[in-house]
Amino acid sequence: MLNPILILVGLTVAISVYAWSNYDLMESWILRPYRMARDQSQFYRFITSGFLHADWGHLIFNMIAFYSFGGLVLGVLCNGTGAPGIDGFGGTGGIWRFLLLYLGGIVVSDIPTYFRHRDDREYGSLGASGGVASVLFAGVIFAPLNKIYLMFIPIGIPGFIFGFLYLIYSYYQGRRRGDNINHDAHFYGALYGVALTLVFMPASGLEFIRQISLFLQVNN
Question: What is the pTM of this model?
Fold first, then answer.
């Protein structure tokens, strides 16, 4: 069976690199809320913008994060691997849910951006961050105690703590608008990932609470 993670990574890398030398493709696929609001036939940009990245750093960071968490999430959705007490949906069922999680995260996370910037002629956004955040937070729900390691921080952070801090930071930066990063996509992609995961697997929410409760008891 083909691995959807490798396919998505391969497509994203190939399209991003090609678009760097093809202005017409970059301009026709990037998220442009102003144009989309005035021509609904351009709503395809909600999905195509997720396969574009600004540079190598942006691309590599997103794809490493997606690959790192994608294996866990796909394994749980397909056969429950890595999440005790949770049953998967089988190969085909798990893959379709995984695609809805990732690709849906790209689209849904950009909807608030669309409404915020639909009257801004110059605004553009690109990247898979919303989908990556969706997958990452599904992984946090499935394995809240798994350690997440960040550059320049020598110790691992339990996933549920990282997730909490990530949401606070993304929300704050999204309101502040102090840089060129679409923090709203991170924030809403994460919320979408949590919501869809709980819809797919309600038992994962109970298991999430149980694991955190045990963690707090042991470390109290």
Answer: 0.92
